[in-house]
Specification:
Pfam families: MST. This protein is mostly helical. Helix content is about 50%, strand content about 0%. The N and C termini lie close together (about 10 Å). The model has no long low-confidence stretch (mean pLDDT about 90).
Length: about 170
């Protein structure tokens, strides 16, 4: 398993740095899944029960929830589609048997591209629109806060995926 390199140490612009680290972690997640068998991708080896494919689908939805539904306040169908059968935000992640590995990887890449476009079209200090994830009367975070939140989700889950991958086939990475 070859790991991508972190962004350049010369980066200083916060917009560029956040974008580069988000892309770095997106790539880390995809590379950690590379070479895993379909069975390993759909099998959990952890007490919490999630599978590597469920984690990928979760991260796809994290981006959609925070940037499309959250920052832009777009109405998205089933924003919690990665969670249990009732779609509760605290439900266990799920991938349906008919969802293919290729389809889930494609959805992840497409959502990442959509998120990049959203972030590129705004400033870090811009406040999320109300009406989507952030109701009409609520307080909404800035784009900078949202991007840092998504980045920490990736950092945590990349570590979780390290463990799942090592348990599946012994592969380790940075």
């Amino acid at each position: 398993m070859t790991e991508p390199s972190e962004p350049s140490k010369d980066l200083a612009d916060p917009d560029e740095l956040l974008a580069a680290y988000l892309d770095y972690y997106r790539d880390v997640v995809l590379r950690k899944l590379d070479g895993m068998s379909e069975q390993d991708l759909r099998t959990s080896r952890l007490p919490s029960g999630w599978t590597p494919l469920e984690l990928l689908k979760h991260l796809t939805n994290v981006e959609r929830r925070w940037l499309q539904w959250g920052f832009l306040a777009e109405q998205v169908p089933d924003p919690w589609s990665d969670n249990g059968p009732d779609g509760r935000p605290d439900g266990r992640w799920r991938v349906e048997p008919e969802e293919s590995v290729d389809d889930l990887r494609t959805a992840f890449r497409e959502q990442a591209a959509r998120s990049r476009k959203i972030a590129a079209g705004a400033n870090l200090a811009d406040v999320a629109a109300l009406g989507g994830r952030f109701g009409e009367g609520g307080e909404a975070p800035t784009l900078g806060w949202i991007l840092f939140h998504v980045l920490q989700e990736y950092a945590r889950h990349a570590g979780h995926l390290d463990v799942a991958r090592e348990l599946a086939d012994g592969a380790t990475g940075e």
